[in-house]
Design brief:
alpha/beta, eight-stranded mixed sheet, two-stranded antiparallel ribbon
Length: 190
């Protein structure tokens, strides 16, 4: 069965974005070795799950000029995969999407993802999309969290697990450290 993997950039104090949804803190640590790791992770998946806010931000950035030759090779690889992979968008505020291979989910989140998990293929990856991550976690549909912890404290913002109640037991299975000070913590859900 395919797995659902959450890949999320977070601050040391547990925020996935600033209060205004800004990610400036994220870009300060970004480097080529992290871009390579991102492309490698995406290569092991074949479907991207997104909420509406994350979809709009990613589509605007990656769909506009995906083969800008100024970008590093790793970003070009990532952009190529992003643009070719199927993308399922979970939103109640949008009625259409324009990013290549994107579609709005027709069913409720749990039903859609359960069906996708049953299909043949590689894993599915969720970028950002805090509400989707929380809902998938509550439904027991997340198999692994890959938390990219950045060496920055922003004091306030959008917490990663804002609406989760109860305990979520995780097992650390791997870590990856980058020269920028970012650490990826790989957790399997128990």
């Amino acid at each position: 069965m395919r797995k659902v993997i959450v890949s999320m950039n977070v601050t040391l104090d547990g925020f996935m974005a600033a209060s205004d949804c800004g990610l400036d803190w994220h870009f300060k640590s970004w480097n080529e070795e992290m871009a390579r790791a991102t492309a490698e992770q995406l290569s092991k998946a074949d479907t991207i799950l997104l909420g509406g806010i994350t979809y709009r931000g990613m589509a605007q950035y990656w769909n506009t000029n995906p083969v800008n030759m100024i970008r590093p090779r790793e970003d070009l690889d990532f952009a190529s995969m992003l643009n070719s992979y199927p993308k399922v968008v979970f939103t109640k505020s949008m009625t259409s999407v324009s990013w290549h291979n994107a579609r709005i989910a027709k069913r409720e989140l749990g039903d859609e993802v359960t069906e996708l998990k049953r299909r043949e293929g590689k894993d599915m990856i969720v970028y950002g999309s805090g509400k989707i991550v929380t809902a998938l976690t509550k439904l027991g549909l997340v198999d692994e969290f890959r938390m990219w912890v950045h060496p920055v404290v922003i004091g306030c913002g959008k917490p990663v697990f804002k609406e989760l109640s109860g305990i979520l037991n995780l097992q650390l299975v791997k870590t990856e450290i980058f020269s920028s000070g970012v650490v990826i913590l790989f957790y399997q859900v128990r």
